[in-house]
Amino acid sequence: MIETATGDFDANDRRDISDLEMLVAEASTPSGNSRPFNWLPEAMFDINGDTVVNRWDTEDWVRNVANTYLGDANLDGEFNSSDLVQVYAAGEFEDGVWRNSTWSTGDWNSDRQFDSADLVAAFQDGGYERGPRALAVPEPNLAGISMCLIISIVS
User: Fold this and answer.
1) Residue 117 to residues 15, 72, 124, Cα–Cα distance (Å)
2) Does some domain include residue 5?
3) Segments forming the whole domain that contains residue 50
4) Which of 41, 114, 133, 144 is the one with CA 20 to 30 A from 31?
């Protein structure tokens, strides 16, 4: 089994658009069809841990692994007008071509289409023109410090 960091499916030590495209390909494969990356364990793509690989894993990857928003087509950490220019320039918005879209061409809900549902999902995510998503900072664990302080006082 290939050991990689969570969300780095191609094992290149970066979490980038190729990883997201691999996840979307897995998440959008109809049940019963051959998986596109069947040499990798399916559990590797289960980002949210619910034992099913689907669009919710894609959303979790975007928000918690890439630390950005739905709609950030170029994965630069922000959803802004440059992302909208990029996806509209690709020319795939409601183009009638079945399952031809990718994340970078506007498929933000993992159905392989760029349509109004993707725009709704992206704007509902609330990141448009908000700048980069804030990084989560863990709370300090004071138990160890408190124990050391108590031991030094008692001694």
Assistant:
1) 25, 15, 10
2) no
3) 17-154
4) 114
Cα 108 from Cα 125, distance rounded (Å): 11
In a domain, 3, yes or no: no
- Hey, what amino acid is at 135? L
* Cβ contact 42:9 at 8 Å: no
| Residue 77 domain flag | yes
**Count: domains in the chain:** 1
The region that residue 113 occupies, defined by phi over 0 for left and psi between -120 and 50 for alpha, beta otherwise, is beta
Q: For residue 118, is it within any domain?
A: yes
User: Looking at the DSSP assignment, which residues form a beta bridge with residue 114?
Assistant: 93
Asked whether residue 148 carries a pLDDT value surpassing 80, the answer given is no
Q: DSSP letter string over 98-149?
A: TT---GGGT--SSSS-BSHHHHHHHHHTT-BTS-SPPPP-PPP--HHHHHHH
On whether the CB atoms of residues 113 and 126 are closer than 8 A, the answer is no
Cβ neighbours of 8 (radius 10 Å): 18
- CB 71, CB 108: distance < 8 Å: yes
